[in-house]
Design brief:
Helix content is 38%, strand content 21%. The protein has eleven helices and twelve strands. Helix 4 packs parallel to helix 5 and helix 5 packs antiparallel against helix 11.
């Protein structure tokens, strides 16, 4: 969905609803964008909101209840970084005030909730954008450019693997118990949105398997294996393991002419095109190894100097979202993308 009437809007005043770990990630990104000012922070625990404001050098006056957030803070856009079961209500409240919404995945727990958000956004002339942060990582965008340029030939298959690495004494946050699929449901949007972007369109789940090892208390399942297809496109396998170690988040994209590998946790990218004889193949392997080494050095230097974002940063997604609003372009992850994600989730775990 493009923004209403493709009107551009300069976002200067920003509100944050929620003050947990995700809020800190969003706030850090917003503070790196010129001309943006966080004018209000709200959380059901005012002490947590105050601690977040203090951590980022903001005055105690930005901590507000939800009523004053809109009346006194007057934000033009609100970041919704609460647990998913309240995304819909908070989003609807902001839309009713004529405020743009940027929300963590998913925007609502049901398709009906997504449609209601879309209807209210349309009628109010504002937008709802989804924080598809991992799908907008530089390595993913680089891969998409290579795919569009035809470097892999015709896409055949995409493999995604996400191991979260929960330890024996670690437990998912209690709010995840409100989700029908628990922690697996909370994690699935990350590999799913990446796979959809790499495939170039919506994906339809064909079959899946939920597995329980019994190693995660309070979770009925701790592994998901999901097979999806794209119409006239590649097949996709996604695997999520809550307890698999070492922690990993990787993708392999296979085409008729080559394969592309992405290691998101280590921020590495490589591509292997099938052409030439043994000498050419050995030369490609040497170049690929040197390429990985160069990426490791560049990533390390960039992280140490603050010029490169760590894996999982929301800066790329937030920057692209604000830029789209300010130029009247289509936002990078509109609500329609969130609907596609919720459709897959509710197919696996009915509400």
């Amino acid at each position: 969905m493009a923004i209403a009437a493709n009107r551009s809007v300069a976002i200067e005043r920003v509100g944050i609803v929620g003050a947990g770990a995700a809020a800190a990630v969003h706030l850090r990104a917003v503070q790196r964008l010129p001309g943006k000012r966080v004018v209000a922070i709200h959380d059901i625990d005012p002490r947590r909101a105050a601690a977040l404001a203090s951590e980022f050098g903001l005055p105690r006056s930005v901590v507000m209840d939800r009523q004053r957030l809109y009346e006194n803070g007057r934000p033009q856009l609100v970041h919704v970084v609460t647990p998913p079961h309240v995304h819909q209500d908070i989003g609807l409240e902001a839309l009713a005030r004529g405020v743009h919404v940027f929300v963590e995945k998913p925007p609502a727990l049901t398709l009906e909730g997504c449609r209601l958000l879309q209807s209210r956004a349309n009628s109010g002339g504002v937008t709802v954008g989804i924080n598809e942060n991992t799908a907008l990582e530089p390595q993913i965008l680089r891969a998409c450019r290579g795919i569009v340029a035809g470097r892999l030939g015709q896409l055949v298959h995409i493999d995604g693997f996400y191991s979260f690495g929960l330890g024996g004494n670690e437990r998912p946050p209690k709010w995840m118990n409100r989700l029908p699929g628990g922690m697996l449901e909370d994690l699935l949007p990350h590999p799913l949105t990446i796979a959809r972007r790499l495939a170039g369109g919506a994906l339809t789940p064909e079959y899946w398997r939920l597995i329980s090892s019994g190693r995660v208390a309070g979770q009925s399942h701790d592994e998901l294996r999901l097979f999806l297809i794209k119409d006239n496109g590649p097949t996709v396998n996604l695997t999520i393991s809550l307890t698999g170690r070492p922690k990993a988040f990787s993708f392999a994209v296979r085409g008729t002419d080559g394969v592309l590998a992405i290691d998101l946790r280590n921020m590495l990218f490589s591509i292997n095109i099938d052409s030439g004889g043994p000498i050419a193949r050995n030369s490609r392997l040497i170049r690929a190894s040197l390429g990985v080494l160069c990426q490791i050095v560049a990533n390390t230097a960039g992280l140490l100097t603050g010029h490169r974002e760590r894996y999982g940063s929301s800066l790329h997604s937030i920057r692209a979202h604000y830029a789209a609003l300010e130029t009247g372009q289509e936002i990078p992850a509109p609500l329609s993308r969130g609907v596609e994600t919720v459709e897959v989730i509710r197919t696996i775990w009915p509400a």
